[in-house]
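subagent[fold] <- orchestrator: predict structure for attached chain, return tokens only, no commentary.
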Amino acid sequence: MAWHIEGEYFESCSCTNTCPCTWSSMSVPATNDYCRANLAFKVTDGEINDVDMSGVTFVMIVESPALMSEGNWKVGVVVNESCSDGQMNALGTLLSGDIGGPPAMLKDLIGEMLGMERHSIHINENGNNFEFTIGDCVSYDATIVTNPMTEQPVKVVGMMHPAGDELTLANVNKVDMSIMGVSMSGENLNGFRSQFSWAA
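subagent[fold] -> orchestrator:
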């Protein structure tokens, strides 16, 4: 059965500069001896198995070896509090990788699923700045990186990434995350912002 979802994407990870996993297609390790990240998808339109997914925000909580292509990822999923049981079940089907799309390319990399949880999720944007929180467990603020000559956002393109092949760079000014057994904190870390569109 055909399905699609689309919307807005936000990411924070533990790399201390532009995430090497993106521009190298996971052939170059992260800047630390691990990768920890939260990948947030705010769905504005779409359906899965005839379930309307509009208004769902889901966040993939990831911990992996520095070289992500080695697999053995730990992955948990957080959904917003208003996500219904039907939407949650449809999302679980999608993220299993069994119905295609970007989750299918991640399927063989996941070694342990940490489950799915509901939390309050808030995303606030103000010009080139955005703030992201998951309850009291995750918080970060970030600023879109711009070219000082043109004031246009700086982007990386042509990559292999679940959110798409074009991402706008962001500097995560400060992050604190401790959720589902995955923790990170720091300042001036890597972030991304983009739109996403998944379909199969």
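orchestrator: received. Logging for downstream: The helical segments are 20-23, 85-95, 102-106. DSSP finds three helices and twelve strands in the chain.
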